Amino acid sequence: VAAALDSYEMQKTKVKRVGDDAILPLLGSRSINQMVVAQVFRHTSNPLLPGPPASPPHFLKGWFSSLTLPNPRQVSSSLSPFWSHYPLNSSSRSLQPLNSFFWIKAKVTLTCRFQKNHWQKIRTMVNLPVISPFKKRYAWVQLAGHTGSFKAAGTSGLILKRCSEPERYCLARLMADALRGCVPAFHGVVERDGESYLQLQDLLDGFDGPCVLDCKMGVRTYLEEELTKARERPKLRKDMYKKMLAVDPEAPTEEEHAQRAVTKPRYMQWREGISSSTTLGFRIEGIKKADGSCSTDFKTTRSREQVLRVFEEFVQGDEEVLRRYLNRLQQIRDTLEVSEFFRRHEVIGSSLLFVHDHCHRAGVWLIDFGKTTPLPDGQILDHRRPWEEGNREDGYLLGLDNLIGILASLAER
């Protein structure tokens, strides 16, 4: 913190040292983060603010006047919503934790300049936010997965994912397999708020404004056991009928329309059939662009040409990014073909995560192993043979072959 302030932020924000005390850092190398400023001043251990004010205190407004901002008055008034949105804990006046920030305890001296051009020192204990774009980064992941599965780790370069035993089992074994470099690094299990989390490498770390694409691999995204159980205990699902209806009003049969419900096996197989999963061995689940916009409207993206157009839009003509994606996919395929783990596991519901940025950095990783299951002793999979119920083939390499072919075609255009 001190080094960052000495090198940049002290001069930019006109915050100065007072004796040997620490100083208030406004972290962020490009601009003042208004939300963080409001939280720092709002959430203090000492009762600087007796109650939830309707607007920022006068010293905050004065302090803003010393910054190089387009309109200090407008910026100050724009902070008002944050004051009511993050109320103090009335008993302890401590900061309520937020998933989108990491928090550390530090003694600081707040030095604020007033309109009259003099300085006032306020010594207190505050929770300093170390800005993390966790919430912004991972919103798209939750669109493609289970809401609330991810959490900030509190350590740079790491992320927490809610633990499931099948995924923990797979990640532990992958760390000793040839595929180690193709998956997020696994750093064990930690406890947070009474729940267990997998501590994983943050794959977006090191990218500047990353663009992200989630590609679900395989000809099916359900286990054979799921299909068997659903048939043994058939249950009509109104929610799945509504999902089917939203995509294609003509998809349900007359009987299903009359019942206004479908069974899970019927829905699962219909879902794979309308996408490219059945035909190409993969499907696009979601995309997040650098501007933060997300799209998951790929349910009926089925043909090679449709998929090619999606990737063409995703890479935005960046030939270097496309080349790196192709090289990485070929490397992953070579590694899969010699991986002992891959030969002996049915890989269902796993994705390839594509990430790139405007600096031409690009990477692809295998993620999501919650439905990856070991095969009986002595059985291995080809991962290219057509799936027939009972053979447990997943079509992973079939999908990867098609994906590489599509990106190679795009590179030739």
From TrEMBL:
The keyword Lipoprotein does not apply. It is an enzyme of class 2 (transferase). GO terms for biological process: cellular response to calcium ion; inositol metabolic process; inositol phosphate biosynthetic process; phosphatidylinositol phosphate biosynthetic process; regulation of synaptic plasticity. It catalyses: 1D-myo-inositol 1,4,5-trisphosphate + ATP = 1D-myo-inositol 1,3,4,5-tetrakisphosphate + ADP + H(+). It holds the Pfam family IPK. The keyword Oxidoreductase does not apply. Its EC number is 2.7.-.-. One of its GO terms (cellular component) is cytoplasm. This is Kinase. It comes from Gorilla gorilla gorilla (Western lowland gorilla).
